[in-house]
Structure formats: C-alpha cells, structure tokens
Design a protein that fits this description.
The protein has helices at about 15-30, 40-45, 50-55, 55-65, 70-80, 80-100, 105-120, 120-130, 140-165, 170-175, 175-190, 205-225, 235-255, 270-300, 305-310, 315-330, 335-355, 360-390, 395-435, 440-450, 455-495. By secondary structure, the protein is mainly α.
Length: about 500
C-alpha cells in the first residue's frame, strides 16, 4: 500500500490537465446521443431492421448503467489516474471497433463495450478535476464540467447528422480516436506522479451479479416498454420480475456486506441524499423535455432532424456564456437560492410550452429553449456542489458514480413514462374529439365538403390526420403543464439540504 502524501498534488500545468479531462468527458457524453439520428442510415447499410438498430442505443445505455456504480470499487482497486487513462483508451478502442463493425450484431456488442468502459469516466474525471484545484476554485472546475455535460448532448444529434450526411456513419465513432488518445496522454503525463492510496478489496460476486442482472433487466424494460406495449407483453413482465428480485437481493446484500461493491452507505449523508433526489427528479424532468420537443417538432410540425436540432440548440447558449460567471461567484449566495431560482425558470419555460400550438413558429420554439438555458446554467452546478458537500475526499468518486447512476436511471424512467403518457393521453383526446364528428353534424359536413372537394374518403383521411395531430398537441401541452409543477415542487426538496456547501474535492490519495 502506497504511503499517502498529505500535501495536495498539483500537476505542472493545471490548465492543460483540465483540457484533457474535459475532452474525455465531452467525448463520452457526446456518444450518448451522436448515434441517434444516424440509426436509419446504419440500419440500411448493415442490412438490419429499425427495431434492431435501436439496440445500438440500448446496449450502450444498459452497460453504462451497470458500470457507473462500480466506480468506487474500481478507484479503490486501481487508483483514479490509472482508471481514467485505462477507460479513456478502452473507449477509443471500442469506438474504433464500432466504426469497423461489419454487421449489426458486431456493432451492438462493441457499443455495449463502449458503454461499459464509459461508466467510470465521468465520476473519476470529476474527482480528479476537484483534486487539482484549491478549494476557492473548485466551483469554477465544477462549472466547466457542467458546461461540457450540457453542451455535448445538444451537439450530438447535430454533429451526428452532419457527419452521416457529409461523410459516412463510421466517422461518428472514428472522431473519438484522436480526441481520446490526446486526452489520455495529456492527463497521464501531467498526473502520473499523483500519489494514490490503493487497496485490494475482495470481489463482491453476489453484489456484482445481482447488479448486472437487476439493472440490465430494468434498463431493457425501460427502453423496450413502449415498443412492447408494457405489461401486456410477457417479455416486459419477465424483465420486471427478474429486475425486482435481483435488485431486492442486491440492496439487502450491499447494506450488510463488509466490503460491498457499491457503497450504499453514502446515502447516510443528508446533503448527498437531498442533492441526489433533487438532481434525479430535475434531470428526469429536463430529460423529458429533451425527449418530447424533438419528437414533437419532427412528427407534428414537419421539421427535419437537422432543423429540430437547430431549434433545440439555443438551450446551450446561456449555459456556455454564464457558467464561468456562475462558477466564480456562486458561493457568494446560498446555493439553495440559486437552485430555487433555476427551478422557477425551468417551470416557467414548461408553462410557456404548455401554451404552444401546431402553427407555432421557429422563433417561439427556439426562444423557449434559450430561456430554459438560464435555468440550466443555475441548477446543475449548485446541485452537484450541494450533493458533494458532505462527502469525504475519498468518497467523491464513489458518490459521483452512484449519484450519476441514479440520475441516469431517473432519466430513463422519465423518457419511458413521458413517451407512454404522451401516446396514452393522445389516444384519450382523439377519442374525445372523434365523439363530436358524425356524418349528421353540420360542422363535420362542412369540413368534409371543404377538405375533400367531392371525395369524401379523402376528406375523412385528412380529417383523421388533423385530429391525430391535434390530439398529440393537447397531450403535449398537458405534459408540459405537469412538468412545470414538477420543477416548482423541487424547490421544497432542495431546502432540506444544510450548509455549508463547499465541496471538499478529491484527495491527494485517491482511494481509501
């Protein structure tokens, strides 16, 4: 066991180290969304169905969800610097394999590998970034990481679409190779002298097995639920039972085992649990917006994937401009006030969208995204700092991995619930609207005469499409009304956190 050095480690060039760490996170977060718009092209080139192509996304999400909670165990076993370099280079290798895949099966397997090695990258990066800055600058370090985390998913679909249209789809994976190699070399050269406290924890095989089975089954259930008609499907029922049993065993085992593979006792910290609850619910609501808006634009307003990306992109403008300012000055105010104001803005923009209609123009859609960016700039970073504030230095990587896992799972739940409710409520509203349309109704007769110009069958088809779009629009408005109240309710949650909120940062000796 290495002897810990009480003096904090500082790399020779903190700025260059920060660039390396940030590039790795940008690359990893970008890959969660960059393939989404390219799925039809990938499926066509590899001779696969659209349903098979969705596993390109699902396989990454499942393996990533499983790997995230293992971050604490891996950092204790290998050290943070070695783990960062290894996972970054493995991510590069997996990306290269994705680019040369010759079949859909190969691509799905390589995407699963990519998701697994990506799991620890963000938590370890955050811990390393906090450790190289003095306490008074750690808010700025967190702010930078937040900015990268916000911008990358927005750029993913736009960049993915442009690369696929301009070059070929493998390049959405090949672009990771130079970026990842550069990031790994920079961080290794700057931080290889960092002292780390390494231990050899025993492998918790029961915890690992139940985690893989429980989380894997749950993630597949969430991803496939809508396609399989939820609990009307035997597959979904089996996945739900398997996941519930495995996760129940996992929770009991991890809370009683002397060396658990996932340290659930981190939830003994008040600020960590309150910050995690607020972040998970806020991220779930935020993720719901990111799921609904592009689908609504493309399916019912006639936008292309590229223009839907452009309409969503203004969300990132204010976070990019304001995050450095937030990082520098946020500790001058109570972080709970900042988060509360952010939730008010997020709620306001949700209420604005609840008043949208089918003829709304590009400007109003983009402006709602732009205003929402103000809320994003002021809620991610304060919530992260609140969440980390009462963790010990050696708990930062474990806590970030666990909180990110819970947050991402919340996003998956939110995406599935949002899609289900959007479709379900649209069906209800369609039935209600259809009740008023009968061949004997004068308004219906006039509409048929106007739309069909003598062809009643054509008129009814046009009328059906109009009713369908209107039903989905009413459902869209209802969901955003609910999301507005969800954001406002989170103000109550965050005030259960207790100051001080100064992040302790990563220890010089990264393990425990």
């Amino acid at each position: 066991m290495a002897t810990p050095n009480p003096a904090p480690f500082r790399p020779a060039n903190p700025g260059l180290t920060t660039v390396g760490l940030s590039l790795a996170v940008f690359m990893q977060v970008l890959d969660t969304t960059i393939a989404n718009v390219s799925l039809p092209t990938i499926a066509g080139n590899l001779g696969a169905s659209a349903d098979q192509a969705t596993w390109v996304i699902t396989s990454f999400a499942v393996s990533n969800a499983i790997a995230l909670p293992l971050t604490g165990f891996l950092t204790r076993r290998f050290g943070e610097v070695k783990l960062f370099v290894a996972t970054t280079l493995l991510f590069v290798f997996a990306s290269f394999l994705c680019g040369i895949a010759q079949s859909m099966t190969m691509l799905i397997v390589f995407r699963a590998l990519q998701g697994a090695v990506a799991g620890p990258m963000y938590p370890v990066t955050q811990s390393l970034l906090l450790s190289i800055y003095p306490p008074e600058k750690r808010s700025q370090a967190l702010a930078l990481l937040v900015m990268v985390t916000i911008v990358a998913p927005i750029m993913g679909p736009i960049l993915g679409g442009w690369i696929t249209d301009t070059y070929t789809w493998p390049w959405i994976f090949f672009v990771n190779v130079p970026v990842g190699v550069f990031a790994a070399l920079v961080v290794y050269s700057q931080m290889r002298g960092r002292p780390e406290r390494i231990i050899r924890p025993k492998m918790d095989y029961v915890g690992l097995a139940t985690l893989v089975i429980g989380v894997g089954a749950l993630q597949i259930l969430l991803d496939k639920g809508n396609d399989e008609d939820w609990f009307n499907s035997n597959l979904i029922i089996i996945l739900a039972v398997v996941s519930a049993i495995a996760l129940a065993i996992f929770l009991v085992w991890e809370l009683t085992d002397r060396e658990p593979i996932v340290d659930l006792k981190l939830f003994r910290h008040n600020n960590f649990i309150m910050g995690t609850i607020a972040m998970t619910l806020a991220y779930g609501a935020f993720f719901s917006i990111n799921v609904l808006v592009p689908q609504w634009l493309q399916r019912h307003l006639g936008y292309t994937a590229t223009w839907a990306g452009f309409a969503a992109a203004p969300l990132g403008i204010l976070p990019i401009l304001l995050t450095p300012f937030v990082g520098r000055h946020i500790n001058k105010v109570d972080l709970r006030i900042s988060a509360s104001l952010a939730f008010c803005v997020m709620g306001l923009t949700s209420f604005i969208r609840s008043g949208f209609y089918l003829d709304v123009d590009f400007y109003h859609v983009a402006m709602a995204q732009f205003i929402q960016g103000l809320g994003v700039a002021f809620f991610f970073m304060p919530l992260m700092q609140i969440m980390l504030s009462d963790l010990q230095p050696h708990e930062i990587a474990s806590g970030t991995g666990l909180a990110t896992f819970v947050r991402n799972l919340g996003g998956s739940f939110a995406a599935s619930i949002t899609n289900f409710m959007w479709q379900h409520r649209a069906i209800v509203h369609h039935a209600q609207l259809t009740e008023h349309l009968t061949p004997f109704d004068p308004d219906t007769q006039q509409a048929v005469a106007t739309l069909g110009r003598g062809d009643d069958a054509l008129a009814y088809r046009v009328l059906e499409r109009m009713l369908d779009s209107q039903s989905y629009q009413i459902s869209f408005n209802e969901l955003f009304h609910v999301l507005g109240y969800v954001f406002l309710s989170l103000i109550i949650v965050i005030w259960f956190a207790r100051p001080p909120f100064t992040a302790k940062g990563g220890a010089a000796a990264g393990g425990h």
